[in-house]
Amino acid sequence: MEQLTFTSDERARVLGGYRSLVRRLGPHAEASDFARLRKEIAEAVDGGYLHRDRFGFNSVCRSLDTANALCEQISPDRNMVAAILLFNPCRHGFRTVEQIGKEWGEDVMRLVNGLIKVSDLYAKSPSVQSENFRNLLLTFAEDIRVIIIMIVDRFVLMRAINHHPDEAHVNEVALEANYLYAPLAHRLGLYAIKSALEDMSLKYTRRDIYSRIAHKLNETKISRDKYIADFIAPVKSKLEAAGLKFEIKGRTKSIYSIWNKMKKQKNDLDGIYDLFAIRIVLDSAPEKEKSDCWMAYSLITDMFTPNPSRMKDWISIPKSNGYESLHITVYGPEERWVEVQIRTRRMDLIAEKGLAAHWKYKGLKSEGNLDAWMNNVRDILETADSGPLELMRNMRMDVYDKEVFVFTPKGDLYNLPLGASLLDFAFLIHTKLGTQCTGGRVNGKNQKLNYRLTSGDTVEILTSPTQQPKLDWLNFVVTAKARNKIKVSLKEMEGRAGELGKEMLQRRCKNRKVEIDEASVSRIAKKLGYKTITEFYIAISSEKLEVNDVIETFLEMERKATEGAERISADTYVMQQPVETDERQGASDVVVIGEGIKGINYRLARCCNPIYGDDVFGFISAEGVIKIHRTDCPNAANIRDRYPYRIITTRWSGKIGTQFGATLRIVGRDDIGIVTNITSIINKEKSTLLRNISIESHDGLFQGYVVVGINDQSSLNQLIKKLKTVKGVKDVQRS
To answer: In this prediction, what percent of the chain has a pLDDT beyond 70?
Structure first.
C-alpha cells in the first residue's frame, strides 16, 4: 500500500496538534492513552493504511484538528477523542471493530462503529439534501456523540477548505453543512458552531454577498462597538434608577443572519432594522415578571422613539412553543435602528433551551418527537454538573426506531415502517413493480418477497411479466398501499377469471346445443357446493371444475324433473280426476288439451312458466299429470328428441279468468332508487301483481329476477316495454 507522506508543515501541525490534545485532554485520560494512540497512528501510517481525503488533506492532521476542536468547542472526552483518532485506521482495515473493543473498551468500539456506518452511508447516497437522509443519519449514528463528532468534523473541514481549488466539492460541503449540520448543531445547543457553519456556508457559496456584508461590518467595527456601548450606558442608568436588577448585553448579528434578513425583507444592508441587537435580561420574582418587563419597555420608549410596526408582544400571548419576550425596535442615536429584547431569566432560559429547560435529566426515555428529544440532549450539554459528554455514554439514537430507510441502486432514499418487506418496497416505488415482483437483490444478495428490510439496505427489485399477486402476499406486507393494491389486483383477477369461466361454459353449451339459463346455473353452483356464482365460474376457468361435468349435472337435473321410470304414451293415457293443489290448475275453459278433452289434471311447467297467449304443448309426466310447456322452453328441444310419444297438443281456450306467474330478468346500472322505480311501474299496472323480486349488485351493475302475476302474454309484453324505459335499465327479458 502507498504510504502517507508528510510535508514539513504537516509534521509541525501533527506535533503541535498532539501537544495541544495532551494539554486539553490530560486531566480526562490516562497517561498511557496518549502513547497508545500515538503508536496506533504511527503503525497505521507505516503500513500504508492512512491516506489523504478527497480534498488532499492529511487524514492524521484532520483527525487531530477535530479532536482538539471537540475539546475546545464542547468538552474534553477521552472516549470520543480515541474514536476520532482510531476511526480512519479501523475503517481502512488496520484494525477491526472487535479489536478496538478489546483494546479500548466497548464504548469506544460503539463510537467507531457508528462513525464507520455513517461514512458508508455517505458512500451510498449521491445527495444528502433530503429529510430521509437526515433521519437515516440519526438512525445509523446510534449514539448522539457520533452526531456531535460529525458536526465538529464538518466544522473543522469547513474552516480548512477556504480558497480550495476544487470549487465543486467546496460548494457541495458548504450546502451540506448549511442544510444538515447547522440545524443539528442548533438543536443540540451548539450555537457558536451553528453560526460559524452558516457563515462559512454563505462565504463559500455566495462569496460576493458574504464579502460585501463582512466589509461593511468590518469598516465600522470600532464605531459600531462604541455605538453599542453608548446606547447601553444611558439605558443601564435608567433601569438602575428604577430599581431593576438586570443583565444587559449588545451584539451584532451574524453575517448569515443579516443575509437572511435582507432576503426576507427584500432590503439592502442599510435598510436592515436589527443589525444591532440589545438584550435585557431581568432578575424578577415570578409574580413581578410582566410588570417589570413593561416597566423596562416604558423606560426605553421614553428615551428612544419606537417603531410601532416592529413591536412584538410575546409576553401577553406567548408563542405556542412557550417563547416569551418583548421585542421593540427604537430609533437610536445617529438615526440608527436598534432592536431591544426584554425578558426575565426564566423567559430567557426557555428562549435559549425551549420548554426542555424545565426538565431534570434522569436518564433518556424514547421521545416520539425529534425536537423534544434534541432539546433534552441540549439541556444535558449545557446544564449537567458532572460533564455533559460523560452523561451521554449510554444514550442511544432511537428516535427513528419505528422506521427503516433503504436505497435504490441509483442512490434514491425511501423510508418505510419498521418490519416492511421487500414487496412493500416494490409497491412503494410503483404499483406495477409490486404486482410483477418476483423477489429482489438486497445488498447484492438474492432475497425472497417476504424479506424484512433494515435501514441502509440497497434494494433492487426483480420482476416477471407473468407474475400475478397471490392471496398469501397479504400475510407479510405491512404498508397500507401494498395491502390495498394487492386486494384490488386480486379482485380484478377474480373478475377476469369469472368472465373467462362463464365464457367457457357458454361456448361448450353452444357446441353441445344445450341451453342453460342463469337460474339453472345458480342451482347447479349450489348443488356443487359453491357459495357464489363468481366462485363457480372461477373454478371452471382454473379447471378445478370440468365444463362437461357441469353440463352433465344440468342434464341429470333435467332428467330427474322430466323422466319417470314408466313409459307412458298419449294413446294409453288414463285420465285422472282433477286434484286440488296450490299450483296452477286449469279449469276446463283455460286450456284445451288434445281434441277438446276437458277435465284433465294439468300443471304449468315451472321451467318456463307459460302464460295465456304463449305457444304451448303438453307433456305427460311420470306422475300422470300433463305439464304445460312453452314451445320455446329451454327444455323443449330435449323433450321432443327424447320423448316425442309423450307430447300432446295443447292450446289456450278463449276465456281468461286467472293470473299466471311470469319471471322477468332485468339488468341495469345500480343507481339510487332504480328498484323503487321498477316496482312502482309494476304496481301501477292493472291486473298485475308483484309476487317476488331478488336483486344482486356487483361493481355498479345489478341483475335481478322479478316474478309477477299477469293475465296474458299481451299484458306481459306491455309491461316489459315500460320497464325498459326506466332510466338505468339496460335489458328486460322473460326468463
So the answer is: 80
